[in-house]
Specification:
Strand order of the largest sheet: 4-1-5-6-14-13-12-9
Oligomer: single chain
CATH superfamily: Class I glutamine amidotransferase (GATase) domain
Number of helices: 6
Largest sheet: 8 strands, mixed
Number of domains: 1
CATH class: Alpha Beta
CATH topology: Rossmann fold
Strand content: 25-35%
CATH architecture: 3-Layer(aba) Sandwich
Radius of gyration: 16 Å
Length: about 210
């Protein structure tokens, strides 16, 4: 079974000072349903140990926390720095990277894309328009509706990417890298009450 490393959000405890790593319980369930083994990455341990000792086959960059370039914040910067180092490592080692929501944003930012605030993209369902040039278009075409939970959108996309999917307002909802094994989406597959089989198949196809 392929081992997939998953990043976490960072949360400051409100009752006393403590920084906590946090991950929606459904992320690991989703990865398991995709017939992959989830490996959750901590921040204060060198992630290279996991790749060397366990043999990581892929990475999922998850949601939560704004990017530091969108909302200057100590925890956002810590997470940005961690995930950028992870991206650099995976690119050199040719390890597949799948981004979800913030995961898509950090990937886009890493390659020089810019962002702007957007209204009306939180807690909604919407259809996506799929680019037939995407190598994942066959599964994407089968996805009827996706959820949306973001306050920032890509303003200028780097030339490194193909825009894979947009909504009716031309907001970018999915991208893939032209050279590296990198795909990213703005919707949260893990937040569906019942996992969408087509979204499961997209993840399975990507890590196949």
């Amino acid at each position: 079974m392929k081992k997939i490393a998953i990043t976490q959000r960072l949360v400051e405890n409100s009752s006393y000072y403590e920084i906590r790593e946090s991950l929606d319980i459904k992320y690991c369930k989703l990865v398991d349903v995709c017939q992959l083994l989830p490996i959750v990455l901590p921040y204060e341990v060198d992630f290279i140990n996991y790749f060397d000792d366990i043999g990581i086959d892929g990475v999922i960059l998850t949601g939560g926390n704004d990017l530091d370039v969108c909302n200057i914040n100590e925890l956002s910067k810590k997470r940005d720095d961690f995930e950028k180092k992870l991206l650099e490592y995976c690119i050199v080692k040719e390890i597949p990277i799948f981004g979800i929501c913030r995961g898509m944003q950090i990937i886009a930012s890493f390659f020089g894309s810019t962002f702007k605030m957007i209204d009306g993209e939180v807690n909604k369902k919407e259809k996506i328009m799929v680019n037939s040039d995407s190598q994942y278009s066959s599964n994407l075409y089968k996805i009827d509706y996706v959820n949306s939970y973001h306050n920032f959108e890509i303003d200028q996309i780097s030339d490194d990417f193909i825009v894979v999917a947009t909504n009716k307002n031309s907001v970018i909802k999915a991208i893939e890298h032209k050279k590296y094994k990198i795909f990213a989406q703005m919707w949260h597959s893990e937040r569906e009450k019942v996992f969408d089989i087509n979204q499961i198949n997209l993840i399975k196809e990507f890590f196949r």
